[in-house]
Amino acid sequence: MKLKTLAKAMLIVSSLALVVGGITACTKNKSASSGSHKDIIIVDNGEDAPTLDPALAQDTQSSRVIYDLFEGLVSFDQKMQTIPGLAETWDISKDQLTYTFHLRPGIKFSDGTPITADDVVFSLQRLVDPKTGSPYNMLGSNIVNGQAIIDKKQPVNSLAVLALDKNTVEIKLVHPDASFLAICAMPNLGIISKANLNKYGNDWTQPGKMVNSGAYNLTERVIKGYILLSKNPYYYDAKDVSINQVKFMPIVDYSSSLNQYKSGNIDITYSLPIDQYKTIKRQMPLEEHTVTQEGLYYYDLNMTLPKFRDNPKLREALSIAVDRNALVKVVLGQDQIPSYSYVTETIEAGKFAGLNYDWANWSRDKQIAKAQQLFKEAGYGANNPLEISISYNTNDLHKKVALAVGSMWQEVFGEKSIQVTIANQEWKTFLKARNTANYDVARDGWIADYDSVDSYTNLYQCGNPQNNSKMCNKEYNNLLTQAQKTANPEERVDLIRKAIAIAMDEYAIIPLYQYTYFRMISPKVKGYDIKDNHLDHVQSKWYKF
């Protein structure tokens, strides 16, 4: 789709939003609290969960259910702070390389059998075992011998996770990691029963066979249908689990989800229809919740292409030319935050805030003048127009962003100086093209798994599979390696800040905004404090009626 009629296209998009908003405004608002279900909470999970095996989870839907079914050595509260889980306490050595976890006395799986240190060892060994095929095995790569096991260079039993006795586990790390406890709370490190998996093999995740360490058991599962969980009576904190059953619905259509919410058929939505967002927010302000999410939306510039790789002024010009304020306020309007850095200002309680580009605070006129100067110095203009194609996976929001960014480039540089096309692809095709650098400019985004700047800095490392721009700066990599090795937290922050500044000078990506997520929560649901949950990690044991 060429952008010669871009202004017209944007007008159509805006008009559609107004029409949809108008229709919604006429819809009678039936309170979700009028639903008839009792003692069961019904949650829209957005999609069907591909797996309920902790080691195999790599998506939001699977993780949401697994957080209810399995618990790790540590857990997290609603502000995403690490708290005791199956381990009641732990000790950390002075060199921060040895963690000793002490399990709660008398804890049991859902079948009444004891949870022991051997189950912990088995669960972590299984995560890094190549036979398991975990897409998140890198979470165990900093445990001594973890990476060698992943690379099939060491046997699984060489992993430095030891059962000192039936209630004590020792884990040795390769280098200090301030995020290690947060990693232990990830769904992939949920503790499973060694005896149960050995008994049922690949069928162990089926209802009636699965044994759980979390607050709930798996009761029923209908593929592409629903997942029903029931309270685990053997859970160590069962007395504080209020809701007896949780039903997850895989509603892909956000409008359908909203309608079911209004009818009282579900209590919590996964998201909201984009074009109805402002209307819903105005009409149902106490039930709609918008939360800043720990994640970045950005564009990759393909650094394997000579026109980007060999022309830093062009990369800088394209970044400065995008009006982030207009993008989030006019085009999107869902309280997203304009982004001018390669990491968010909120990660690790703001330790990496203030790294924004200097031009972020310039007037728009000054930004445009600088972008035009760089574009001209890069060798482009009416006599040598730049041709750019923006790729994105099929989605209305991504299309709106691509139309807006292309329009801004044409407005700043002139339609005769830059020719922009946009092209959508289905998700799998798009992922393959982006991963193999078969694109020009690509839509990208990243949601942090845990509260660590590593979630972002990994994206720009040489050779990292998630580094879709394919930038590579060895000085950046070296600084991150130094930061990993130091046990001094202040030195770590200083080294990483320097590394981020170096990566940003590459202008290999164009940061656009920090995500928000939004959902409806029925007034009858208590105990769910969503406002500080920037990672959107949720456990049903928090809910009450």
TrEMBL record:
Gene Ontology terms describing biological process: peptide transport
SUPFAM superfamilies: Periplasmic binding protein-like II (SSF53850)
Top-level taxon of origin: Bacteria
Record localization: Cell envelope
InterPro entries assigned to the protein according to its UniProt record, in alphabetical order: Peptide/Ni-bd, SBP_5, SBP_5_dom
Chief location bin: other
Cellular-component GO terms for this entry: ATP-binding cassette (ABC) transporter complex; outer membrane-bounded periplasmic space
Keywords on record: Signal, Transport
Gene Ontology MF terms: peptide transmembrane transporter activity
PROSITE patterns for the chain: PROKAR_LIPOPROTEIN (PS51257)
Domain Solute-binding protein family: 83-465
Family stated for the protein in its record: Belongs to the bacterial solute-binding protein 5 family.
PANTHER family named among the record's database cross-references: PERIPLASMIC BINDING COMPONENT OF ABC TRANSPORTER, PERIPLASMIC OLIGOPEPTIDE-BINDING PROTEIN-RELATED
UniProt name for this protein: Solute-binding protein family 5 domain-containing protein
